[in-house]
Design brief:
391 residues; alpha/beta; Carbamate kinase; VC0802-like; 2 domains; eight-stranded mixed β-sheet; six-stranded antiparallel β-sheet; 11 helices; 16 strands; elongated
Length: 391
């Protein structure tokens, strides 16, 4: 087993004293020498506090954050006591402590960590304790420069774990959940859903923003390249689960380009039957983008054997007419910030327009923006977009 780990337990895993004790036993049996535990509020506690505050009405955001923080603060004390009852030397950290590590802005209800200041405090207060004590940290919470409690948004305990894992350069971050890791679908909707052994971070990000409540999507941007991230089931201890591989380059936009693409424009009624037939005719061709309009569909694919593709599509008799345009290039931009803040499409299109680069099509999917332009303009487009995004 490795040396340094951050283990996060969700509220359902801490719902009773028995569960808290079992979670503490898992930690002690984990085999890691340097352990940080992040805890959520006990199941239902935060919702009850939110309901009470809502019934009171007109509570300032600063007071709201202070009140709802009580769930995590209680959990930290309970978990630390459970570790102590098992003979472990443990200490808990909460925002009122001088040693509290996570400093944020003053957005009390959805704060962002100041990574430079947080990592400095982690190094000063937490690292000297590792290997000597198990450190229990309140999830979901931060503190601003004035000392006020902030919250990291719902699901923010995942963010706490990933931020601490980043600053500590932990070998592994383990997120303990009530499900069998990441499932192929919501098992409440699809009983046949199966656990996945591995997922790329981009795939996990897409699922998280698509509604899968397994990991807070924003937390994934803190994963380090050499760091192992696993999502495990509480009933299985800290074993197995789903490993999330890869990493976001959160400091800059990832830019990729492709050339020699074909844009196939199909005039047809957009129905599932017609789309099924059209996509089946593509067989194993790669698809780089799809856009739909009123009575039309455009597919961006490779230009290899273009005549064969057009003839195959035409023979299906599923469309009124079709055409193909070759010499298409694609610039693919990826950054997790795209999905959280408005204006990126305008910034991208504005930058290209300023250099008279015409956009054939733009498609988006979660953290990725794909821009299709004339292939002869691809290098200019890449340079313009790089300058615009780094400005």
């Amino acid at each position: 087993m490795g040396n340094r780990v951050v283990i996060k337990f969700g509220g359902a895993d801490l719902a009773t004293g028995e569960k808290i004790r079992r979670a503490a036993e898992m930690v002690l049996r984990s085999g890691f020498r340097e352990i940080v535990v992040v805890v959520s509020a006990m199941e239902g506690d935060t919702n009850r506090l939110v309901e009470v505050v809502s019934q009171i009405g007109n509570v300032p955001d600063e007071d709201y954050a202070e009140i709802v923080s009580m769930g995590e603060r209680t959990s930290a004390r309970l978990f630390c006591s459970a570790l102590g009852s098992l003979g472990a030397d443990a200490v808990y950290l909460e925002p009122s402590h001088e040693e509290w590590p996570i400093l944020t802005d003053s957005d009390y209800l959805d704060a962002s960590a100041d990574m430079d200041k947080t990592c400095e405090r982690v190094g000063r207060y937490m690292e000297p304790l590792l290997g000597k004590k198990i450190i229990v940290v309140c999830g979901f919470l931060g503190r601003d420069e004035s000392g006020s409690v902030t919250t990291l948004g719902r699901g923010g305990s995942d963010t706490t774990a990933m931020v601490l894992g980043n600053c500590l350069r932990a070998e592994e971050v383990i997120l303990v959940k009530e499900t069998e890791g990441v499932m192929s679908a919501d098992p409440k909707i699809v009983p046949e859903a199966k656990p996945l052994e591995k997922l790329d971070i981009q795939e996990m990000f897409a699922l998280a923003y698509g509604g899968a409540r397994i990991v807070k999507a924003d937390a994934l941007k803190y994963k380090l390249p050499s760091q192992k991230l696993r999502i495990v089931n509480f009933t299985n201890g800290l074993q197995g689960g789903t490993e999330v591989t890869g990493v976001f380059n959160a400091s800059s936009t990832q830019i990729a380009q492709r050339r020699d693409l074909l844009a196939v424009s199909i005039v047809c009624e957009i129905t599932s039957e017609r789309l099924g037939g059209i996509f089946s005719s593509l067989r194993d061709r790669p698809i780089y983008g799809i856009s739909t309009g009123r009575g039309s569909l455009t597919i961006f694919t490779s230009s290899e054997n273009a005549k064969t593709l057009i003839n195959d599509l035409h023979s299906l008799s599923l469309c009124k007419a079709l055409s193909a345009r070759s010499g298409i290039g694609m610039v693919e931009l990826t950054h997790p910030v795209f999905i959280d803040s408005p204006g990126w499409i305008a910034k991208v299109s504005g930058a290209l327009a300023s250099k008279s680069i015409n956009i054939i099509e733009i498609t988006t999917s979660k953290a990725t923006i794909s821009i299709f332009v004339d292939e002869s303009k691809i290098e200019d487009a890449v340079n313009v977009l790089r300058d615009a995004l780094e400005a």
